[in-house]
Amino acid sequence: MNIDWKRKLTSRKFWMAVISLVTSIVMIAGGSDQQAQQIAGVILQAATVLAYCIGEGLADSSTNVNMTEKGDTVNDDEN
After folding, report:
1. Over 14-35, what HEC string results?
2. In the chain, what are the domain boundaries?
3. pTM of structure
4. 39-50 pLDDT tens trace
């Protein structure tokens, strides 16, 4: 079974499930509501950054493939 990690890591449903699990563990371990909210916020921020990086990487690779097919060269120094 192959897992499409790019798709999983950019899925909002996946990150909401992760947040739900982690905040439940915090509450069971005796953490406060405020701690659970802070942890959920950190997870959401990390997920946002990760999704942005994956999205930019896919966009860049698509641009590189399209330019290579046309015979153009890609200059990374321009970005």
Report:
1. HHHHHHHHHHHHHHHCCCCHHH
2. 42-69
3. 0.59
4. 999 998 998 888
